[in-house]
Write a structure and sequence with these properties.
This protein is of the alpha/beta class. It has a single domain, classed as 4-Layer Sandwich (Metallo-beta-lactamase, Chain A). It is built from ten helices and 14 strands. The protein has a seven-stranded mixed β-sheet. A five-stranded mixed β-sheet has the order 8-9-10-11-13, with no helix packed on it. A two-stranded antiparallel ribbon has the order 12-14. A hairpin with a 2-residue loop joins strand 1 and strand 2. The longest helix has 24 residues. The chain binds fe (ii) ion (FE2).
Length: about 270
């Protein structure tokens, strides 16, 4: 099933793309357009549908939050079709310049990203009527970057938010870096969080604070058990949070509560 949903919040246009081989899409992906700037490019499996929608829009720049295929997936095609530059952090540029392995579930859920030549992010991205500030927020991935629009209090947060009560981590996510990145953005003044998967159009900052509290409590509980001699497996069995078996199964363990427990343990 394919779903394309569009909505507008003030001067932000959202394009929400869902794809699944059967049943309702598990996790849809939002691209955002503001003042001629397209933020993220959706999953490769929705390429034709996105291009069709973008033909009805006006934009002259594309910026990426990170290299994961549901964000970078159509950058190469958009560059070709609309003759626009694609901007991103140096790490995102490097990731998009050489081919990398993706797991079977990533093929199945999103599809493979085509490589693309990108331009480095300026310190400030200028639209016609506004400025966006890129802020490096590693943790979900090393190259993760959010974009901040100060005057309206908008944060285009890529995958930094995702939810206030996180149920699983990818194997390559860094727990402490995510906490530092959230602390960093909490120093900013914003209310609307344009998350790529679960937008929080009001009280977004409060939701980030809730996520931070949740991550700190979880980490405290896990480390308490770890210091008592519990290993990761027995911690997973003991804590009240439960493994989402279907996610662990589909991703062959790339996304799991076990990874979240492991990532939250302070080894020294
Ligand atoms: Fe991601």
């Amino acid at each position: 099933m394919k779903t394309v949903e569009e909505f507008k919040v003030e001067n932000v246009e959202a394009i929400n793309l869902g794809f699944s081989y059967f049943g309702k899409p598990y996790m849809s992906v939002h691209c955002y357009l503001i003042d001629g700037i397209l933020i993220d490019t959706g999953q490769p499996l929705m390429r034709k549908d996105l291009i069709k929608v973008l033909r009805t829009k006006k934009f002259n720049k594309v910026i990426l939050t990170h290299f994961h295929e549901d964000h970078s997936g159509n950058a190469a095609e958009i560059k070709k079709e609309f003759n626009t530059n694609i901007y991103g952090s140096h790490l995102t540029m490097n990731n998009m310049a050489k081919s990398y392995k993706i797991l079977p579930y990533q093929h199945f859920m999103w599809g493979r990203t085509e490589l693309v030549d990108m331009e480095p992010l300026p310190e400030i991205i200028e639209g016609e009527n506004l400025l966006l500030k890129p802020i490096s927020t590693p943790g979900h991935s090393k190259d993760h970057t959010v974009y901040y629009e100060k005057n309206r209090g908008f944060l285009f947060s890529g995958d930094l938010f995702l939810g206030d009560k996180i149920k699983y981590f990818r194997r390559d996510e860094n727990y402490n870096e995510i906490i530092s990145s959230i602390n960093k953005i909490l120093r900013l003044d914003f209310d609307s969080v344009f998350c790529a998967h679960r937008p929080q159009l009001k009280k977004g900052k409060l939701m980030f604070k809730r996520k931070l509290d949740f991550l700190l409590n979880f980490k405290g509980e896990v480390n308490n058990l770890y210091q008592k001699g519990y290993d990761e497996k027995s911690i997973v069995k003991t804590i009240s949070n439960k493994e989402v078996t279907i996610v662990k199964w589909i991703t062959f363990g790339d996304a799991s509560l076990f990874n979240m427990v492991r990532a939250s343990i302070d080894l020294n």
